[in-house]
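Appendix B: a complete holo record

For completeness, this appendix reproduces one full record from the ligand-bound portion of the collection. The bound molecule is zinc ion. The inputs are the chain sequence and the ligand SMILES; the output is the full three-dimensional arrangement of the complex, encoded as structure tokens. No fields have been trimmed.
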Amino acid sequence: MKETGDDRNMNEIRREPLLGRWVAVLSESMKPEDYLSSMEPSAGGHCDLCGEESGGAEEIYSVRDESGKWLVRVLPAMVPVFSPEGDLGRKGIGIYDRMNAIGVNEMLIESPQHNVQPEDMGPDQMLRVVEAFSARMTELEKDVRVRHIMIHKNCGIPSGDACGHPHSLITATPVIPKRVKEELDGAKQYYEYKERCIFCDIMREEERLKERVVMETPYFLVFCPYAARFPFEFWILPRIHNCSFRDVTEEEKRDLSETLSIMFKKLRRLLKNPPYNYVLHTAPSRIPRRNHWHTLGEDFHWHIEVMPRIKSIGSFELGSGMYTLTTSPEDAAKYLKEVSHGD
Ligand SMILES: [Zn+2]
Ligand SMILES: [Zn+2]
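The structure of the chain with zinc ion bound, as generated:
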């Protein structure tokens, strides 16, 4: 463990100098044996997310029924990487850049029931989840140190979903993560060239061709991207151009919760409960700062990417960043469209 003045006990983020990728480094290293014990199945079946207990953590947000029982709640993550206390402590060490891991890790518990996903609890429950996403994002964006907020979920992923109780994650970071930055830069370049939003253009093209469209709802288009990374990957795009999820309307929230419910049910039926990840990509904090660009509102378009993890990532993908689609997006869309979401 390092003890360096103001930064003691604080995790840090480091910028990889070649590609500009930020990585978080814990101040207290896990020992080799810690990795071995975390791979063992949890004993006793006790779940810290069930019931009113919160393991001593202070509840950040909740929606409760008339009897006072919570239906959706947000707690601090069990092992937070980012901390809301302190300053950014940005500094250079020789050629390297680092800063304190200032930010927030929150856990949104999507259901009081241990083994039930929110999409199985009726339309109102999924709506509560979507509303909680929106409420937390609005609140977290007020912190000037926060540069980007990502909502994401590891469902059934052994390395990222240890507890089994349905939950998603909200991570606020003091930098824009590389993967998000690449999307923002790509969208900005396209806009500079064509003066149109690339996502709106993609949507128009997909609606015209129809061959990768899974679902069209009043406010959303669901389709398998032309050059996806994972078999059966699909994206959910709002039809009305909007760079930030923070500005989502009530009608869109309701439609999105229904769309997510239908799509997760389809995915489960088609691939027998596959592990999956999803991420919600939205515009970074729009508090003006250096490198701020004025076309952000026009060039970026918030969206959700759902990535089934039915095929492992191997050496070629790791070494090249190039993926192989063993089911074409056209066929994947056809399967997803045809499979019923009914019970
Ligand atoms: Zn539980
Ligand atoms: Zn757009």
